[in-house]
Amino acid sequence: MDEQFFALLIDADNISAKYIKPILTELSKYGNITYKRIYGDWTSTQHSKWKDELLTNSITPIQQFSYTQGKNATDSAMIIDAMDILYTNDVHGFCIVSSDSDFTRLVSRLRESGKLVIGMGENKTPEPFRKACDKFTILENLLNEPVPGEEEELEETEELHGGLRGERIEDEIIKMIIENQDNNKQTGLGEVGSRLVSLYPDFDVRSYGYNMLSRFLEDFTRIQLVKKGNFMSVTLKEDKGMKEDIDRFVLKLVKEAGKDGIELSILGNRVYEKYKNFKISDYGYSQFSQYIKSLRSIRVQQDKTIMKAKYAD
């Protein structure tokens, strides 16, 4: 694979100097950093900690005076430079480091021009900027240890995003598995990872305390990892005992309905009433009718405009 070149543009106004080494390490995974620029008013004491890092890490400071109070001149300077670099066409991608949503349109414009855009920012970064990027990395995840005084903020963020998004992520993975099953395809671990990043550019297993996607997925209750040779697939985890119980219940209802059979809608309601936690997707089906058709001794027939399940003698 050809080497990829990136332009790193940092907004010093809302990014702490403590992140610089993790930022450079993380971006180096994607390719070679050919532009390293940081923007701010260097006459201000606010950026004193950054000044110590500039020479050490060969970062070019771009001076931008705050001409008008309340206006962010740094944003404008970064945007102008990004467009200048874009038109030189000598980089494959950009890394925009900021926790400010003002760069959302810039990111969209760079991607429209076919450039890969990696965003980096703190947990407080607004959703529009995160989702505009090809990949967004939360800077707190890059630190080896929590920063003193920020533990409470991190816990609140995990409470807001961790649990809820964990469930949502599992739901999305199950959709992927069912979609692939309908097309007679396996769902590889790599596919799951790439599709999750496409759905959620800020998805990062480090947000949940893991360093590998496989370990993150192992803790989900409805999916499992299966390794065959060098290929790791993600499949649905069946509760065989419960499924056998449901199968017997369905067969009993269909038998009791006699030769006329039972409407699928009525059958479905009876199943869901008895088994409150029953989810058809947990068994690899996207429709209730698919599940019924999979059962031996039961056939599904169209009776005028109504679908019925009948016992096959």
TrEMBL record:
PROSITE patterns: HTH_OST
Domain of life where this protein originates: Bacteria
UniProt cross-references to InterPro entries, sorted A to Z: LOTUS-like, NYN, OST-HTH/LOTUS_dom
Species of provenance: [Clostridium] hylemonae DSM 15053
Signal peptide: none
Domain HTH OST-type as annotated: residue spans: 242-313
GO MF, one example: RNA nuclease activity
Name the UniProt record assigns to this protein: HTH OST-type domain-containing protein
CDD domains: LabA_like_C, PIN_LabA-like_N_1
